[in-house]
Amino acid sequence: MTASIGRGLVLLSLLCASAGAVAAFAAFLKKRADLTTIAVRASYGFALSMFLANVWMVAGLLRNDFSISYVAQVGSTSLPTWVKVVSLWSSLEGSILFWGGVLAIYVAVATWSLTEAHGWAKPAAIGSWLVCATFFAFLIAGPAQPFGTVVDVPTDGPGPNPLLQNHVLMAIHPPFLYGGYVGMTIPFGIALAALITGRLSPTLLGTLRTSMLAPWTFLTVAVVLGGWWAYEVLGWGGYWAWDPVENASLLPWLTGTAAVHSAILTERRGVLKGWTLSLVIASFLLTILGTFMTRSGIFNSVHAFSQSDIGPTILAFLGIATLASVLLLGFRVDLLKPDNELDRGASRDTAFLAQNLLFVLFTFTVLIGTVFPLIVEAVRKVQMSVGRPYFDRMTIPIGALLLFVMGVGPALPWGSSTREELKRRLLPPMGLGFAVLAAALAYGIRTPWTLITLFFAGYTAWVTLFEALRPVRARMKFRTDGFLRAFAQDLFGPGRRRMAAYVTHAGAVAAFIAIAVSSTSGRSLEQSLKQGESMTLGRYNLTFEGIERAEEPNRTSMIARIGVKKDGKDLGPLRPMMNQYMTNREAIGTPAVRTGLVEDLYLSAMNIDEETGTVGLLVLINPLVSWLWIATVIMAIGGLMALFSSARVGQTVEAPRDLQAEPVR
Amino acid sequence: MNKGVFAIGLAVTVPLIGLLLVNIDRDPTSISSPLINKPAPDVRLMELSGGASVQLSSLRGRPAVVNFWATWCIPCIQEHASLTAGARANPDVSFLGVVYEDTAENARGFLAQRGSAYPSYADDDGKGAIAFGVYGVPETFFIDAKGTIVEKYVGPLDGDTLRQKLAMARR
Amino acid sequence: MKPLLRSRTSRRLALIAGLVAFPAAPFLWAQEAGQGLSAEAKSILGGPESGSGFDADVIAVLGPPEGKKVPESAVNELAKDIDAKLRCPVCQGVSIADSPSGMATKMREQVRGLVTKGYSEEQIISYFERSYGEFVRLEPPLRGLNVMLWILPAVVLLGGAWFVFRKANQPLAAGATPGPAPEGAPTPKDVDPELAKYLERIRRDSGTSS
User: Fold this and answer.
1) pTM above the 0.90 mark?
2) B127 → closest Cβ in C55, C130, C133
3) Could you give the percent of chain A with pLDDT greater than 70?
4) What does CATH list as the number for C34-138?
5) Which of A272, A245, A246 is CA-nearest to residue A260?
């Protein structure tokens, strides 16, 4: 009975979505506002029923209702409550239901935010969103039905994959990832609406910008959280392996960041309209590609869901959505005429173009590396791999150049400038660049690309700080305000959006530094220790003190207690462990990490042998890794600041009243 | 109608979708062995009792079956009967077992309990498994009299499949 | 400061040279790719040493070692570099350097043994390729179809760069102004010229993000 209620809710959502899509497009084609109203109501109907379906499933998981097929699949009476809740997204069918739930929230908010000012773009956008919603509701109602009725109701279930039960990030990373992925549907719908109506009005553009920033912020956090999770759980000491599914989460972020920047040019100058829309559309299509890669079972990945049948269905949707997008772009983009020309020569406009080019190149390289084994198999019938060495080699130069453009771009003024002005703006930041380079060399870094990246980081850091405070300094100069007052007035006034961008860039600089240093300047040592034996790495001395055991209902853990001393001072023990889950043959290790601001001490027990009393210990010193997590928080703050700031163009600093008759607008 | 947009759009998207479509049934875990029709690796394996060792090249002159197994592997336990029967029915073929990711002690205990018609060997440093390109167990290699691998079979063997593969090795 | 590149032509040539060199940079940077984790010279996981004398199979496949015997202090570093390039067969996409599984550990030991005997990196990788196929190479060799992995991104880079370059150097259409005319701004003669200069700068820079 409970399963059929769930099925009913899903069917209702499918009905609302499909009816609403039809009504919306009919409203647009026939120019009938009453049909728009119906579409809006259907949109809310879809959202409510899909959301309730999610609530119903979580209730079923909490109640251990094994008459529902998904609960029978991943539920278990012996799970802690939080694991029961998060098992909603732990397996394939539930994850699609969760996708629907997040989409429901986005569609409801987005529908609500559309107004009369959007004109006929409103039904066009709603229609586009509801077409996507129809597809996902269809998946849930059909091939990936989680509300199946179980005939012989079992008394207990197997629980979700053990690897998904041992870390709290399981509760945080997927919601953020879906918040990013699913959210790309909204700007996609708006982009289609712009193409369908043949017009990208400032109002629509503002809505597009906002709808792009929310998923971007979520996705930024999600991608790094995924890395953090891998770092804390998998035990090899790194946070990014260029796994196909990891790449899938990165691709829409790359095009999304390019889109956010391209949108700035479109907003400010009315140029690159078609290009911005293409990037937005590409971001959405890449999320569908990502979903396909994760769920089709044709890619070799540690993150992939188990083999399923929904691959072809998702591919069909991807194909249709892609074709529709290309057709719409091809036929309608010429209607979106630019309002201005791009600045020539060494101008900020050119910097934007260069940045976009680099992001597109980055996206293309990661994409081709990920699918290349499939190409070779199809042509030469031989399996081959494209792994970390290739991706690192290609993306490190691109990343370094992006960091550089992030410094040069904001330093360049809008419009054209004289050679003198260019020198005045572009040369001083090199001072900090050289300072950072010197510090790096003093620290002992010798890897060329790391040094180049750090030089660029110093350069960009200077520009970011200097430019961020430019209006503040101007206020201080003309109003004789103190720094804090000027800063607050800028932040809470018209300057917040601009400040948000620089905050995000500052976070990005920190991230680049963290990635560059942590990937190349770490140290590691692997040694076999008997009880009482010690090993030394850097300033740390590690002693194998003993083996402990921990029994839990779903696993037995063997823990190696390692005493840690730094420069002779006792820091307390660390406990890397090997967990033997009931359902797995090979034990799964959990590393012990001592997080520090300057470096992490990372211990991984490669094997623990009780009989001989030895442990194979892998010790890593990872510098600046925590900077990456901190940097992401900063970037997220920047994203939120941008989201909650005015989208009005052309705000300026009010001139001091005693110097001028009227305020400048 | 913007021809450039169409050109670039279709040039990028059609090959990508087409590639995924062509590969829709791809199983990323099934890797074909490069050793088919190549000489069998000449590794040295230790006897389970810890005594002598055997160099694989010494088996040349007769067809051979090399079966990688482990006591924790359920399909290996299932195929043990077929392999034992096969060894007895085909005295002209050398049968060898190689223990994979398991202790000699476990293997000896298993064989003492279940009986065996052919010797099994330890591979403690994994050189045998690595040389044969083993991904997991059970994997069985069929080698002809000249020492060339003619077939690799992944999964538990039943009597019929064993007979069929042996015929290939005898050719 | 005297400008280095006077004429437009020489600037363009420099830009083209830079763009061509850029795709080549990864090849020049061959050493630094991937891990680059430095290591102390200590023993690694205990385990059976690589047998007495040369393995018959290794000799049969590789022949004699191409390199010289490697001193103990350099073995770890070299072995780590090679580990990063070999794919763990029983894992999902990680190198044997990063995998804790039993097979990966044994492969690492074997790599170490071969390095100690003086086998070169290419020899060692080809030894594993003999057993596991091309699949085990994490970095695709530069032969045949694989060159597309480098050519296609280069095409995108050069094509895109040419496009950006063209846009940035297109002559302005007659009468078109690059920047938007500021609306309602007082003309400079209404206000203090010092202020006007700063206001103009602020107007152009602040407001919407950078």
Assistant:
1) no
2) C55
3) 96
4) 1.10.8.640
5) A272
